[in-house]
Specification:
By secondary structure, the protein is α+β, with helices and mostly antiparallel strands. It is built from seven helices and four strands; from the N terminus they run βαβααββαααα.
C-alpha cells in the first residue's frame, strides 16, 4: 500500500495529524504532500487547492482518491496497531455520522488546533 497523503500545511491540526500518522505508519505506506506545494498541483491536478483545503486527501498509485472521512479507514489500514479502527470506521452507524462529524471539525480546525498546542503554521515543516 503506497498512497500520497495530501494535507493543509497551513493548519496546525492538519500538521499534527500528519505527524501522528507518520509516527504510526507502516514503513512505506504513505508519502506526505502539502496541499500548497507545486508538486501537488503538478501530480494531482484533480485534487485542486480548494478541494484539498477542505479535507485531507489520500491518493493511491492506481488513481483512487479518498477525501475527508472517506480517507480515514484507508489511512488506518496503513498504521501499525490501528488497522482495527478501519473496520469500525467502515460500519454503520459510524459511516452515517462520520461525514457530518468530519465537516464539523474541518470547518473549525483552527479552533481545534489549540488541542494540539500549535499556534503557528510554521510549526509544520514540509517534509518532501
Amino acid at each position: 500500500m503506497s498512497a500520497t497523503l495530501i494535507y493543509d500545511a497551513s493548519c496546525p491540526l492538519c500538521c499534527a495529524a500528519r505527524e501522528w500518522i507518520e509516527r504510526h505508519a507502516i514503513a512505506g505506506a504513505f508519502d506526505y504532500m502539502p496541499c500548497q506545494s507545486e508538486e501537488r498541483a503538478r501530480r494531482y491536478p484533480a485534487v485542486g487547492e480548494a478541494r484539498c483545503m477542505e479535507a485531507i486527501h489520500l491518493v493511491f498509485a492506481d488513481g483512487r482518491t479518498f477525501a475527508g472521512d472517506a480517507a480515514l479507514p484507508h489511512i488506518c489500514r496503513g498504521l501499525r496497531r490501528w488497522r482495527w479502527l478501519a473496520c469500525v470506521l467502515d460500519t454503520p452507524p459510524v459511516t452515517l455520522v462520520s461525514p457530518a462529524a468530519y465537516r464539523f471539525i474541518a470547518k473549525r480546525r483552527q479552533m481545534f488546533s489549540v488541542l494540539v498546542a500549535r499556534k503557528a503554521p510554521e510549526s509544520c515543516p514540509v517534509k518532501e
